[in-house]
Write a structure and sequence with these properties.
Blueprint: H1 10-15, H2 20-33, H3 35-39, E1 42-45, E2 52-57, E3 66-71, E4 77-80, E5 93-98, E6 108-111, E7 116-121
Antiparallel strand pairs: 1-2, 2-3, 3-7, 4-6, 5-7
Length: 122
């Protein structure tokens, strides 16, 4: 067994709200409860930014689409919020999960280094 098993284990992760275990629990809960994340299609957006992976999960009838944006770099990134490729008319984002959306506007989303955001488009 590795020597760090005393501090790096499930019991420790369960106590830390920012642990990887908690992050996965939140992702799984969102996938189960947000229709666009389990029944929607996928449309890539902001394809010109090589450091950010962004896509819209289109929603089934009666549900709202969801934006997923992941900064894959160690530097802050600005994601272009032109969602027209997904044919989405939302002007506001309701963050469901994630950090790094500080300073976001209706035209851009600011992502912290290695930050991620999952947001309902309203």
């Amino acid at each position: 067994m590795p020597g760090n098993y005393v501090s790096l284990n499930v019991a420790t992760e369960q106590k830390d709200p920012k642990s990887l275990l908690r992050w996965y629990e939140q992702v799984i809960a969102l996938r189960r409860t947000v229709p666009a994340l389990h029944d929607g299609g996928v449309v890539m957006v902001d394809t010109g930014n090589a450091n950010v992976l962004s896509y819209v999960r289109t929603a089934p009838a009666g549900a709202k689409p969801v934006l997923v944006s992941l900064n894959m770099s160690a530097a802050p990134q600005t994601m272009n919020l032109d969602l027209s490729p997904a044919k989405v008319d939302g002007s506001r984002l309701k963050v469901l999960m994630g950090e790094g959306a500080d300073g976001s506007t209706s035209k851009a989303l600011m992502l912290q280094p290695y930050g991620s955001v999952v947001a309902e488009i309203q």
